[in-house]
User: Fold this.
Amino acid sequence: MPRDIRTTRALAVCAAVATIGLSGCAGSDAGSSPAKESSGPIKVGLITKTETNPFFVKMKEGAEAAAKAEGAELMTAAGKFDGDNAGQITAIENMVAAGVKGILITPSDSKAIVPAVKKARSAGVMVIALDSPTEPQDATDALFATDNLKAGELIGRYAKAVMTGKPAKIATLDLAPGVAVGQLRHDGFLKGFGIAEGDPSVVCSQDTGGDQAKGQTAMENCLQKAPGINVVYTINEPAALGAYTALKAKGREKDVLIVSVDGGCTGTKAVQSGQIAATSQQYPLKMAEQGVKAVVSYGKGGTRTSGYTDTGVTLITDKSADGVDAEDTAFGLQNCWG
Assistant:
């Protein structure tokens, strides 16, 4: 029988049961235990920001491997672009209707996704945020993620140490408004560098959406505004490589320090070649693996996972700085993704 027919009939049964005042469908309380398992594998949903970003590709691979090992069925979906909140809402609704026990999601809009998440949880579905928290963070049952504030702080401390007291003229190539992960990395960088928001050493700030082409344009704009820039913070490595391209076109690639976050294989190789000075490496495979296991445990009658699980972050560079712990690119390439 086609899945859509089975799903329609299942929903009709639930509606009928509710009408006569019996229980048996998913609970209405976000803290309720899962309904008794029917035959067949436990269904786990994974919703990422996009399908093409290597970070989310690796996350999907990790979820697929974990689902196979756990005997679970994985359903996947993604936004059409980074920031596609409507697409993620539709994916949540479809997965709840299909009977998933839990949804793993990297929210494109940390605030706007919250009503859909609450609705899913009220239907008895456990929702775990991966990589990016919602606002508020406790809108989901749990968060498995890099400590993004720490990731930013590590590269901020590194940049400060490398500058050895020289006056800094900083460009921040950020993500986009309303995305918690971007704000946390930005704030962490400032903290690590020892400055506050609005400090005059930050001479230019541009949003890039984490995109390489937009990162290049942003860097070009910053160089027009402040030609003397000597430190560039970037939200991720695609933005960093875009910034490098713009700097190289101006003959500035060797005298500007670029730091970033991600630790993908392409980005780690860019650190190895000297295009990026240092990056904070995160581990999407761990996020997905642990998330799938948590949903399967819940689906088997376990309790809902709660709170924050730090999946780790490591500073990667081949040019060490005094007082800053780091691993070299050999370590980074053994643990990279993409």
User: Anything to note?
Assistant: The chain has two domains: 3-146+284-305, 148-282+314-334. The longest strand covers residues 43-48. The longest helix spans residues 3-19.
